[in-house]
Amino acid sequence: MGNVWQDFFDYHAPRYLENSFTKDTLAEVDFLVEELNLPPGSSILDVGCGTGRHAVELARHGYRLTGIDISDGMLEQGAHAAGDAGVEVEWVQADAARYTPASTYDAAICVCEGAVSLLSMTDDPLSHDLAILRMVHAALGMAAPFVLTVPNGLQKIRHFSQDDVEFGRFDPLTLVETYTMTVEDPRGHREVHAREKGYLPSELRLLLEAAGFEVRHLWGGTAGRWGRRPIELDEIEIMAVALRA
Ligand SMILES: C[S@@+](CC[C@H](N)C(=O)[O-])C[C@H]1O[C@@H](n2cnc3c(N)ncnc32)[C@H](O)[C@@H]1O
Fold first, then answer.
1. CA 223 to chain centre
2. Could you identify the atom of ligand 1 that is nearest to the CA of residue 111?
3. Which residues of the chain, if any, have pLDDT below 70?
4. Which of 69, 72, 128, 222 gets mutated to test ligand 1 (max ligand atoms within 8 A of its CB)?
5. What is the separation of C-alpha 2 from the centre of its chain, rounded to a whole number of angstroms?
6. Dihedral of the CA atoms 128, 132, 133, 134 (nearest 10)?
7. Which terminal residue of the chain, N or C, has fewer Cβ atoms less than 10 Å from its own Cβ?
8. What's the CA gap between 111 and 94, in Å, rounded?
């Protein structure tokens, strides 16, 4: 059996771009281009690239893109999108927590919960995400920028109740939420359990530092509302901008 998120995204891939949180790609890419501030032709690694909505747009801006994702279904959508846009993107099917990068990149992005924070029922939350951050660190050249967005732990704390803790929907020790999702594949229609970790801003800073990054900014990072602005307590995602130290 594959990773639960792999099963889910393989199933969900044809409908992924119907999600409202995917509708601001062009503005997000403008933000990334400005924030990464790279000369044309620079190489960018997109971790958990999904259908490649950022990778393809960044390739249209003249960058060399590699997208890693655990889901073949999502990568297939990405390959179609790159073909339609007339750009080249290197697609790599891999679990980002177990991947050894083959090249060195000038920048990396991991946005909209691209692998970091997406856990199976057995992953240790911090070890899982630290393995991905270390992989990104190993993939980057010195002082290369990295933009990461993750679920906002402050929002989860404010959203969940003591009942959610008692029913196992939210773990106050790790800020991990447990989901039940529907998947349909050749094995039939079934419900799967998966988990997503929320981060406190200071916790995210420490984990990035443990992986060898210098954190430059912690901003609000909710899809559709990216900007150089403070984190709001109830927003869905936070953004870190870090440099490979
Ligand atoms: C919410 S989507 C985000 C996709 C893309 N970054 C975007 O902004 O649209 C999460 C993606 O992470 C991928 N993913 C989940 N766990 C992963 C892992 N361990 N390694 C690589 N990709 C993973 C999923 O297959 C999915 O494509």
1. 12
2. 6
3. 1-2
4. 69
5. 19
6. 100
7. N
8. 17
